[in-house]
Task: structure prediction
Amino acid sequence: MTVELRTAGLSTTIQDSGRSGYYNVGIPPSGALDQYSLTAANYLVGNPADAAVLECAYMGPELHFTESTVVAVTGADMPPRLNGEPRPQWESFPVSSGDVLDFGFITAGARAYVGVVGGIDVPEALGSRSTYATAGLGGLDGRPLAAGDVLPIGQSRSAIAGRTVPEDLRPKFSKDLEVRVVMGLYDHVLTPDGRKTFLDTIWTLTPVADRTGFRYTGGKLELIERTPPFGAGQDPSNIVDAPYPIGSIQVPGGVEPILLHRDAVSGGGYMMVGTVISVDLDVVGQSAPNTRTQFVEVSLDEALDARRAYRKRIQRLAESCS
Amino acid sequence: MSRHEVVTPIPGVFYRKPDPESPNFVKAGQAVAAEDTIGLVEVMKSFHPVPAGVAGKVVDYIVEGESVVDAGQAVLALEVER
Result:
């Protein structure tokens, strides 16, 4: 079966759990920015956790179904409508041949996810269906979706509508966030005051935020006086080129931190003062412009504890949707 | 005639003009067609036009230029034929 896009929304892309193993040659993982909502959308329709779904940024598409199936919408609060009638989020529901699914205005979060039984069945590129538009890789012809696109849907087993994610397993989207970071590898380039400013400032997300990176305003970080190392360029925030972790926060010139997400460039010459812990990348991916964000320092052990807690939550999600 | 409010379908930063040196897209009293752009919303590193959506006569902008808007927020008032 297929699904046709009558309108595409603002930026709708095919994403799965990502393409790991190629960052060393400059190809980032891509995949859903909110992996928890991806997983939930898939479990709700009986797919494997990593099947491909639609990631819909800020404005939903209009989808026309050519056969009966079951779908689920998770992620940002963006009310689904089937033939104009309201449908729930975080719950699977049936659609019939000829039905049209569209969305109301987004009220919280940044990205909604649409899972369909069988998954979006575009060919894999380097082991993933995720769209990395910068390089034209994956998804449908390597690009965000456009009106008129026809999406192939995978072989479906019989699916059950009415599966629900319990209230306590649904994320809450806020305009005031605390995001946990492990400091380093270049925070030694900051003075003690500069480091304190980074952690004490309530940073505001600018509109300069997409799948590659999120830029914030709010303060200026004081840097130590030093002679830049050979090859690092003149600005004191420059470093000798180094790999950029996903989630790393670079601060060119000591102002406007840029948090790299799943479509990041793999390396460069800006100091990274900290890295967002992997489980908090979901909440970053759901932040819209003007979200107030404080970075909270945690130790590596605390980051690993948070990862274990996240995995337990995913396990509970799997159990509650089966 | 009745009042109609044009809403932005996306959240971001609203602009009344295409660039800092240009006049606003529309001004009070001006007639607009449904497809006419009345402002821009900046999000995800790009600027997205907001169309009037319906034909009518401009009353005024409802939000300031460069203000942060939510999806569904009214940005311009029109007078439209009933």
